[in-house]
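seq:
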Amino acid sequence: MTISFVCAECGKKLRAPDNLAGKRIKCPACQAPASIPTPEPETEPEQDDFLSSDWLNSDAAEDPESRDERRAARARAAREREAEGADEAEDELDGLASRMVTRPRKKKSTTLKQTDSPAKKPADDNAETFHYHWVFLLALIPLTLTTVWPQESMEIRIQRLVAQQPGIEAQAEEATSLDEFVALFPGGRLPGALFPRDTLGHWGIGIFAAASYLGLLFLMFPGSGKRTRRLFFTGLFTGTVGIFMLLFFQILAAMPRGLWIGGRGLGVLIFLVLKLIGYSYRCASDPDIGFWGSFFGFTIGVGLCEELCKALPIWYYLTNAKKTGWRGACLVGLASGIGFGVSEGIMYSGDMYNGIHGAQIYLVRFLSCVSLHAMWSGSVALLMYKNQDFLDVEGFGGILAGIFYYLGAAMILHGLYDTLLKHDLGYVALLIGFGSYFWLFKLVADSRGT
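struct:
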């Protein structure tokens, strides 16, 4: 049973259960205190007068006029019940509305729940991915085959060929150059040689190798086609100017040992460095020098000079390009090494391979050696991009520190590789080649993670 009452403050009709009779509550609408009245006890059963047994037994039951009064009374009672039900519904709605107003709603937390797995970073649609890097590893296959199945030495081969050609022994002894000796054989080449001595076929191999490696760079870095011009001129620079610089360093190796400049100053310091490079080249080329002397010569002489020539386009790119990134630096570094390696292969082919060696040596020179040069200069480029503190240094000491910081690893790998080949340690040299690949791959992985 419920008790209906009215708030004395705001006049709102309220309802409360009978067990709260006599207590004070707050009005849900105005929050004013309100007393719940106590209902008066009922002495008669709750029924309409017109249903009482006395009335039914009275004579009025038979009176038509009384029947009309009964119907009117029932109609009034029905209307009162409907009105009372409407009031109860209204009170319930008001109570619900007041509870919604007076009770603050709990706000949903906007904090993201932590999950066991970290949130994925949004993908960069313009990011270039390092694809097909394993091709540099495949390019070492010719070097691997040559190491596993080595060819006979040049001295033994000449002796065998002379013995197979009766009548040329005397002419072979009188030959004063390799060109004169090869000219004694039919076609101006030794049996089994890929090209005759006087040919430009090696230029065709070099151009094909350069174009193939340029296409490889486009596959490795999708979207790098827009850098075609930069990559082309980078390779052209190291293939021409870089080679001439290397020849200049080799000329320094022939500098008279007794020549000396006394005094102090930057000029004297540069002269001493050049003398050291010249001495290093002599150590590298002298067959009587031991392993560590050769390693010093190939590292400080050959390794330093060649890696320095290949690093110049990288330095220019990082200091002059409006927008640089590790991908662009790596591309320029790889292109620089490719240009240098192809140009060196053309130079060696014209001097030592044409008319003498078969196809295997060309594969080693234009695939494996070009790949090694690209990997060494690519690693230098990534180191230069990662730490550019030495790019704008002034003073001889700062420049020297930057050179050894950027080129140190490549110089050591380069020098150690050449030293091992000089001392007939081909298997170890092959391991250095694979190590060069993994060194580059590590730097790429570190750059991609930044």
